[in-house]
Amino acid sequence: MKKLIVASNNEHKIREIKEILKDLPLKICSLKEEGINIDVEEDGKTFMENSYKKAYEIVEYLKKQGKEHFMVMADDSGLMVDYLNGEPGVYSARYAGEHGNSKKNNEKLLEKLNGVPFEERTAAFVCAVVILTSEGKEIKVEGKRKGNIIENPKGFDGFGYDPLFYVPEFKMTFAEMSGEKKNSISHRGKALELVKEELKDIL
């Protein structure tokens, strides 16, 4: 069974990826599970640039360790709000200045959208996924899910901006959905479905 190393230690993200790719003959591991302690600086201008850089640096590290027959998957995802010209974008995780502080990030977003009517609060979650193999193969895909930013957080599941991201067709925020439901319609879910198709040619 081929090993897929996910260039992340975000438990929510790892869980979603394992769930969506569970039908494939892969052993999916996080960086922590592989004993890799590398923090790649995400200084790209796009989600795809950040994803590629993360995957590339982990692949190079593993090659130097003499490892063979592996794949590294990296993803970078975030929220793009139309009214804010695509903010927070690649800065989604550190929008309020402190990496991973969802509460502060959500507060800043709501502050910036204060007084903006619902129909103008359109946004999209974007997920760019890159897979690089030890044999030099590349997969690059992107998934997107459109929605609106509501004024007050709703729901207790999910993470990040999920309590504010409302999907009109389902009349729910991401945080109000079950994990299974969210995975079936989310930006990461869409990207990983594309990954599954691409991986079939490699596995």
From TrEMBL:
PANTHER family per UniProt: INOSINE TRIPHOSPHATE PYROPHOSPHATASE, INOSINE TRIPHOSPHATE PYROPHOSPHATASE/HAM1 PROTEIN
GO process annotations (BP): nucleotide metabolic process; purine nucleoside triphosphate catabolic process
Catalysed reaction equations from the record: dITP + H2O = dIMP + diphosphate + H(+); ITP + H2O = IMP + diphosphate + H(+); XTP + H2O = XMP + diphosphate + H(+)
SUPFAM superfamilies given in the database record: ITPase-like
Residues annotated as the enzyme's active site: D76
EC assignment: 3.6.1.66
InterPro entries recorded: dITP/XTP_pyrophosphatase, ITPase-like_fam, RdgB/HAM1
Enzyme type, top EC level: hydrolase
Cofactor remark from the record: Binds 1 Mg(2+) ion per subunit.
Protein name in UniProt: dITP/XTP pyrophosphatase
UniProt-annotated binding residues for Mg(2+): E41, D76
Residues binding substrate: S8, N9, N10, E11, H12, K13, S77, F159, G160, Y161, D162, K182, H187, R188
Function: Pyrophosphatase that catalyzes the hydrolysis of nucleoside triphosphates to their monophosphate derivatives, with a high preference for the non-canonical purine nucleotides XTP (xanthosine triphosphate), dITP (deoxyinosine triphosphate) and ITP. Seems to function as a house-cleaning enzyme that removes non-canonical purine nucleotides from the nucleotide pool, thus preventing their incorporation into DNA/RNA and avoiding chromosomal lesions.
GO MF terms held by the record: dITP diphosphatase activity; ITP diphosphatase activity; metal ion binding; nucleotide binding; ribonucleoside triphosphate phosphatase activity; XTP diphosphatase activity
Cofactor entry: Mg(2+)
Entry keywords, A to Z: Hydrolase, Magnesium, Metal-binding, Nucleotide metabolism, Nucleotide-binding
